[in-house]
Amino acid sequence: MKSSCLLAIVAVSNIVWLTSVSQCSLGQSPDTALPRVWAGTGASPSSNARYSNPPTMRSPTATPLGNPFGIEIIEDRVWITTVDDHCIWRASIDPNAKTSSSETGEPRDAASTGQQSGMVRVAGCGLKGYSGDGGSALEATFNWPHEVRVDRDGNLIVADTRNHVIRRIDAKTNIVTTIAGDGTEGFSGDGGPATEARLKHPHSVVLDGEGGVLIADTHNHRIRRLDLGTGIIETIAGTGAGKLPSDGALALQTTLYGPRSLAIDEQSIWIALREGNSIWRMDRDSGRIHHVAGSGKKGRSGDGGPATEATFNGPKGLVMDDQRRLLVVDTENHLIRRIDVDANTVETVLGKGPLKLKRPHGIAYANGFGYLLGDSENHQVVHGSP
């Protein structure tokens, strides 16, 4: 299937090289019954045993997903990372399916709507570790693969968080390699080869559209950039001190406080500070950082008022929809909140209704489809419409 839609996925690793955004022609319209469970059985895999290969394809709602964290959508394909079994999964959005509607908006199981098709494991063997470079990603071990992005050639870029590395899975061969980090936590290497550098719990990666990968080097309180052409790594934001930034300061000269999630568009790098309980925007031209939302204090307040005065509790996921509204995964409040960037307002869009969340993490968005959310400790993926 060839879709005519270009996606505003701001986990949007790719919004810069997708040169225009149009309405998606996936053969479906947003479901008035959303939100609903899209994948996962609600239970984590019962065994820590090594998975057998080749993997078995199953319905997404029949696939146990142990703590789904990162989510990526590219056209009609979806990738999901799971941290309980340290794997990456791939599913498809069925372009011919029509969603059901409901007057009540009650959440329903995804099986009744037919909006997805087969899910299969594409990386990880079910065991925790750091092995497999140079071989099949299906035989490799990972340690909390927190986030996955897909480049223009279909290669996967993975934040292998507790191994303190960034890894790449080749689209043609499925061979995995480390492209940043030496596997030891720490901070070093700016200006040199990324594979000799040290990272500390990198949680988020995003493609910058200019031949680089941006890395949320979370426990180093920095954002770093890997040049995929030269292999060189450098810091582009943060001094290493765990404090809130100064609004309007040069990003390289101010502090960050636990950068946990990144999103990008042509003008900005959007940053969720988990420990800083706030959202910031780095201007790509000027290199200056600006306050978007969150007072910095931990809490659950501010809906209907100024976003900059609201409180959050450990935000861990970001994505921009097609109306310039930033969806924020307010993890420790078990909510999804929406920021109207231009109006400086915030509201809650998921978590207060009949579908309750439990420490959600990653989120991705596609025009005409809506968003997918890793409802992590409920061991499922939720489909919603902003």
Notes on the protein architecture:
There is one protein chain. By secondary structure, this protein is mostly beta strands. Helix content is 0%, strand content 36%. It has no helices and 24 strands. The protein has strands at 36-39, 68-74, 77-82, 87-93, 116-123, 145-150, 156-160, 165-169, 176-180, 202-207, 212-217, 222-227, 233-237, 259-264, 268-273, 278-283, 289-293, 315-320, 325-330, 335-340, 345-350, 363-366, 370-375, 380-384. Strands 1-24-23-22 form a four-stranded antiparallel β-sheet, with no helix packed on it. It has a four-stranded antiparallel β-sheet with strand order 2-3-4-5, with no helix packed on it. A hairpin with a 3-residue loop joins strand 22 (363-366) and strand 23 (370-375).
The overall pLDDT, averaged over residues, is: 88
Helix-strand category: mainly beta
Strand order of the largest sheet: 1-24-23-22
Query: Compute the gyration radius: what is it?
Result: 19 Å
Number of strands: 24
Series of secondary-structure elements, N-terminal to C-terminal:
EEEEEEEEEEEEEEEEEEEEEEEE
Shape estimate: globular
Put simply, the count of helices is 0
Q: Helix amount, in percent?
A: under 10%
Protein name: NHL repeat protein
InterPro entries: 6-blade_b-propeller_TolB-like, NHL_repeat
Biased composition (Polar residues): 43-64
Keywords: Repeat, Signal
Structural descriptors:
mainly beta, 386 residues, disordered N terminus, globular, single chain, 6-blade_b-propeller_TolB-like, 4-stranded antiparallel beta sheet
